[in-house]
Every structure is written in structure tokens, then in C-alpha cells.
């Protein structure tokens, strides 16, 4: 490796950019340097036009799980967009600039075949992304379940990283919490595993992330009398993921807050039994959790919900911008403007109408673009 290339690699990793993003940035800098400085009025006009936009155009994304029905349907049986290539075209037509994968499978009759989780498949996907001006930012994919890591798990995870770099991903991760356990000892083990996987991701120029549901913001069982299996039955009041923040390496382990599920946690996980047996109340604050460590949350799921206290979760999922979650306040209060990558997600977007998920994607894009603060 030449000295110049070493410097480029250090710059790329320091800025948290993929190789593709660094190339785009340096190309843009070179182009800007060639422009005359005698255009202050135009620059001021551009700044004024963008004032108040809470999600910059280049950061408006969607996780493909939202339109999984379109990706997986048979293109020979419908005139609607189907398979990765045609769905990319549709999403780019709506205005999206980013996508997040939820695996690499599509219908067998779609161009490229069913399984694109190969080097050849990744190159095909990358070509379709580039053709449509899309940047892939992450994937909900394979994270080894075992610990210590087996040789087979390590080999597969390294292939995950290779595919991610072909696709130009900035991040690689999973749709699951680090562990589903309520117990401190299991979260300690999870941190060991994620720190090691995070090191491998860093070596590949990627950020490892975990996507979180409401259960991760429930209270950790870490104190009080032990049960018959020798496990603690009470809590010191720290939430499970808050504990994980402290024991995982901030340089190697990152997070994707699903803002809908964080609000579900605010609704559901309000009390805990303290070591002395008293019941204590603590209301979860999603925004404060992010603001305390913004650079550890490179990704969000921008999933909206209407309030429905009659349900167990307290919210019903709806297209972005049509619910009760205060996204204007959430994005306006972030300190690191333009750093985060919000991905629209709606688990129930597919429906009886086969066009529904893409229609919701278009509506949600318009609402993301209209968000001002």
C-alpha cells in the first residue's frame, strides 16, 4: 500500500465514509475549487432555499422490508414493479436517494435470479443502484448467534463484509437486538461478541450496527433476590440497551433506533422493581437517548404511528408523516445535522392491494421531503 493510499484510508475511516463516498466527496471538493468565488449571491440563495429542511434530500431513505412484497412477487404474473431492479427504479422515481437492504432475495423469475447474496449478485445489485442514483447504507443480515465465534461463522461474516463493500454500504448490521435476554450476564456476553464483530467491520471500512425494538429499552434484571436458577429478579433502574451502550466499544458498535419502537417503549416500559422491592417509575425519552450519544446512531428507522392506548404497543403503524409521533421535534432537536440516515419503514405496508406498499413509499417520501423545523 502506498503512502498516499494510506492517507486516503485514514481520512475515509476518520470521516466514517465508504470508499465510494470518499471518492464522491473528494471529486466534489475538486469541482468546487474550480468554481469562481465571485458568486456570493447564488450561494446565499441556495442556503436560504434549504433552510429548515429537516431531512436533507440525500438522506431520504427506505428499508426494503417495507416493499418486500414488490421485491418478492413474480414479474411474469404482474405489470407492477417487481424484483430489485424495477423496485429500485420506482423508489428513485419517487425521489429516494438511499436504501437499506433486508436480505438479498427476490422472486426466482426476477432478473438475476432468487438469491443475490453472492459476489456476482452483489455486483449486479450495485449496478442497478448506480443506474438509479441510489446509495445503499446498510443491511439487516447475518450476525453469528454463537459465542465464541466458530470458524464457519467468521467465514460467513467476512463474506457479509465483502458483499457490503461491493454494494458500497456504509454500515452492516442486523434487525435484532444484541440479545433478547433480561439478564446482565447475557448482555455482558453480547458485548464481547459485538466488540469482536465490530473490529472486523472496522477493518473492512464499515460500521457495525444493531437495530432495536421496544424490549431492548425494558429494564435490566441485575439485582435483588435470586430466582431458583440463580438469576436476579430486580433492577437497579438501568435499561438493557443503556447498559449495553456502556460496555460496548463506541468506536466499533453502533445503533439504529427504530423511532416507532422507541415510542412503544416509552408507552410500555415505565416501571421497575428496585432492589428494596419498591416499584419505581421512569419514563423513557427516545430523543434524550440519541442526543446523549448521537454519533453512535448513524441510522434511524423513521416509522410513524397513531396513538392507540387500547393496544399493547400504544401505537398503530401508518405511513410516515400521517401519525402522531412528533418527527418535527425529533429531527429539529438533533445536534449533528445531516449526519443521520433516516430510513422510512412500515411493517404493514404490504396489503390486499398489491400496489399499496409502493403507494405508501411515495406518500412517505413526500412527507419526509416536506418536514421542516
Written description of the protein model:
It holds the Pfam family AP_endonuc_2. Residues 88-344 form the Xylose isomerase-like TIM barrel domain. It comes from Nonomuraea marmarensis. This is Sugar phosphate isomerase/epimerase family protein. GO terms for molecular function: isomerase activity. With 373 residues, this protein is of the alpha/beta class. It has two domains: 1-51; 56-370, TIM Barrel. The protein contains 13 helices and 14 strands. It has helices at residues 3-15, 19-33, 40-50, 68-72, 83-94, 119-131, 151-167, 184-203, 240-247, 259-268, 286-291, 327-332, 356-370; strands spanning 61-63, 98-101, 135-139, 171-174, 207-212, 223-226, 232-234, 253-258, 271-273, 279-281, 299-302, 304-307, 315-318, 341-344. It has an eight-stranded parallel sheet. α6 (119-131) packs parallel to α7 (151-167) and α8 (184-203) crosses α9 (240-247). The radius of gyration is 22 Å and the shape is globular. It starts with a helix and ends with a helix. Mean pLDDT is 90; it is low at 1-50.
